Amino acid sequence: MSYISLSDRDIKEMLAKIGASSLEELLCSIPDDIRLKRDLKLPKALTEPEMLYHFEETARRNKYAEYLSFLGAGAYRHVVPSIVDYLSSRGEFLSPYTPYQPEVSQGTLQVIFEFQTLICQLTGMDTANASLYDGASGAAEAVLMAYRLQGRRKILVANTLHPQYRMVIKTYTKNLDLTIGEIVYSESGRVDFADLNKKLDKDTAAVVIQSPNFMGVIEDLKKISESVHNHQALFLVVVAEPVSLGILESPGKLGSDIVTGEGQSFGIPLSFGGPYLGFMACAKEFIRQLPGRIVGQTKDVEGNRGFVLTFSTREQHIRRERATSNICTNQAWCALRATIFLEALGKKGLKELAWQNVQKANYAFDEIIRLKGVVPKFDGKIFNEFVLEFERPWPEIDKFLRNKGIIGGLSLEQFYPELINCALFNVTEMFRKEEIDRLTESLKEALK
Amino acid sequence: MIREPLIFEISDEGKRAFFLPELDVPSKKNILNGVPIREKIEGFPQVSEVEIVRHFTRLSQTNYCIDLGFYPLGSCTMKYNPKINEKIASIEGFISSHPFAPQDLVQGNLEVLKTTEEFMAEITGMEAFSLQPSAGAQGESVGMMLIRACLEERGDPRKIVLMPDSAHGTNPSSAHICGYRVQEIKSNEQGTVDVNDFARTMTEDVAALMITNPNTLGVFEADIKKIAEIVHSKGGFVYMDGANMNALLGICRPGDMDVDVIHLNLHKTFSTPHGGGGPGSGPVGVKRELEPYLPVPVIEKGENQYYLNFDRPKTIGRVRSHYGNFLVVLKALAYILSLGPKGLREVSEIAVLNSNYIRKNLVKEYHLEYKAPTLHECVFSDKFQKKHGVGNIDIAKRLIDFGLHPPTMSFPLIVHGALMIEPTETESKRDLDLFVDAMKQISREAKENPEVLKSAPHSTYVRRLDETAAARNPILRWNKEIEE
Question: Would the pTM count as exceeding 0.90?
Fold first, then answer.
């Protein structure tokens, strides 16, 4: 195929205008000794029907879709209203660049302004940015932000923060004068307060807590916030399942200083892990240290309301090495999808969605723990995920379920060596009662 | 003209757009006893489906986009985004895969990733790739982290990263994040790195040179191999910013120029849509020496199947969750397969032709600071128009009235009042001529009627916006004091 729009005659005319005899002549500034003197070793070009055939074949080698899967752990299967796909696939949203020219980018800018507003409303914070890459890098950016704000050298991270997020924080902070300490969990699955209070000190810049945490358990944010603020540290709350914000009190009301998280649940398909949507919100006084794009409202010369990228003196293209982050391209189109999703669900819909998640997950949980050979690992309240501990080796049960067409939970031993034969199960509104019952029945057989 | 309100301003109690099925499990009260619950989400919108569809459709119509016309943002490579790639990236078997799915059930996805890595390696002449970085800037920081990790293992991470003064703003920022001090190299009269000067600047304190080739002026750094030799002789690494790879496909390869690390921007060279500011994808390619440090997991090809390898003791770790922006990578792979080796070379040849055609046509009307031959982009300045009190921003805003998108203006910093033009290969001669004619007319207007430029644009949904006021009196969200 080709996406060139020039005819042979055009090329000839253009070369003549330039005064070059050939296309090759235009490349004369590239020295001969570094030229590639052969064709690239790539398959020959395919036509559209061939490509479609090829990729449909490839997709069929993914057998995952044939299974009933209870995987979650930071990536969730939720309902997507049809207007999300329809509206977000418009070329006017899909094919522009970052809105550097606001007069011809009001659509993108107003959408981001609405997105920022929705994120503020959900998190209970004053200010939000236009998006970050994903929840994991968002958590790392929040840590860097707290470090800049505080000038202290220690960050405490709950070890119930998503393991990948913790890895990214480690990578991002490796070359800084900063130590990362971990806070363990208690029997409830929540943060161990004794451990938190023992480790908090005057060097602590921030404490990072995920809620609902990686074990699915809802943290007592208010209580944690009091401890954190007693030490003048910043309280960073990570939300990996933002549907929970439809029903749980906002982190802002419970004392958070920075809230960051993963927005994939809002209208973005699982997509084998990306693109997803990082978001970040903070208290007003911290805005100069917020990373990423921010859209603000202003007026044009005729007094009409309009929107622009603002506070760009924080950013790399102005501040260069002293920027708050090197982020440039972020996830605007994913933020658009989230905006359409949230506006379609609306005030009642999002609450109902959250409520259905709580109900269905708790239904599954209650049904399963009645079985012999399995116990709940933690007793804390859950949102839409829970950890089960099995008497028999998890790999055996997993295999049994696989033969029944079910992908059970995520094995936790790979992330927490002490959680032997424990698995994390996710149940969202997408699971019908029969499907949940099928899981319970299959587990019952597996545990016989 | 209808002025589209914010969604919050048309919200009213009881309106709804989406309905969930009734709960089919027994509902339990007190299920969240003791957990703080919110009564409502204050200010959250309540609107109908029709209202949402019209809202977004109207908003979309205030956007300029590549589907509408010429978009010559320099160094952004705003080429046409093929629609078949969107269709491929919406195939259910791809989009429904969970990232923690058992590896034997996502062999198709792993094949997509591995094949793309191999193709990227062939295209760039590098030896291994990681597709994890989410966008160019993250690719840059990964590249710098790899260099740092390798130098640390040798015993000294070093202190300085060198880069030409023509570098993109993300370069200094990325180097800084990795703990390096940035030292700029002054460009010579050709706008390139001067080898003799460079040889004096390069020391054993320097971890790496970050270089863009062709550079942000569109000029090829012809001495790249000599420069690389100097860097290597002092034990440093050459990092190439691949933002301008669209000039080089099938013509020459960074790997053959002795570059050690490169990042690519799939949303530039490989045609994936920019989405109004992302998602992008910024794969990083390396030579063997840096391969052990790549982010985890890496995808390996076993005897019968692909698998993810997490057991990499020297890895820098992770920079994001999972395997990168998978769907973006998928679209880039589709693009490569649709063009093949000949088609990719043609991309670069025609991108260079289109840029030189514009350069030739405008060189009388606009000042060209650097006269060296250029490849896929050219950088003019507003020097001639400045005499009439007209700046690059006025020229840019006036272009909008002609139904065209302005060029890049914020860099390179070495050209004052820059107009950085990158037409890309997908544009027709008619579109190029429309741009040339508009630029010529604007140049005339600058002399005859500068006011029309300073008050431009005249034809848009909003006129020129007050960016100073936006920063001085920040309104960053909608707010209603008391909710009904």
Answer: yes
